[in-house]
Amino acid sequence: MGLIDEAIALEERAESNYRAAAETTSDPSAAKILIMLADEEKRHADALRTMNAGSVQADTSLVDAAIDWIGGRIEGGSSAISTDAELRDVLSRAMEIERATETFYREQAGTSDREEIRVLFERLATIEKGHYLFVSSLLEYYDRPAEWVESAEFGLRPEY
Q1: What are phi and psi for residue 59, nearest 5 degrees?
Q2: Which domain CATH number covers 137?
């Protein structure tokens, strides 16, 4: 298996994991976010197939969807973002996959002598790190949605 094939397999595994999790979660908002992550992983695999680094960008609507999900729970008086007990495990597995994928891209970008692979892998590593941080923030605040929404990175702040 070549390097690009290995990278595509990693992205397909992540996509499959997110789609399976979206189908099994009882939380429609969580399913929406998981599908968005799956779609982004699919775009990564497509970019790898075409070696088009320009087509790889982080989906900024992920954070917006999470803010809507968590903010809606708070406004509804809920003390947790989800009643789905298995969602915590789903998020933990997602973090592991994102970390492994980021590590793979960083290592391979550092050793590649092909400029197009190095550029594409560096961009993908940065995006996967963002996914890891995003999913880890959801996991960290799984039981504390009010604090998550109030955090400086994700919170809603009044305009100055």
Answers
A1: -85, 105
A2: 1.20.1260.10
CB neighbours of 123 closer than 8 A, spacing ≥ 6? 53, 56
Domain residue limits at 73:
3-150
What's the domain count of the chain? Answer: 1
Residue 66: inside a domain, yes or no? yes
Domain membership of residue 143 (yes or no) is: yes
Taking only the tens place, the pLDDT of each residue in 106-133 is 999 999 888 888 988 998 999 899 889 8
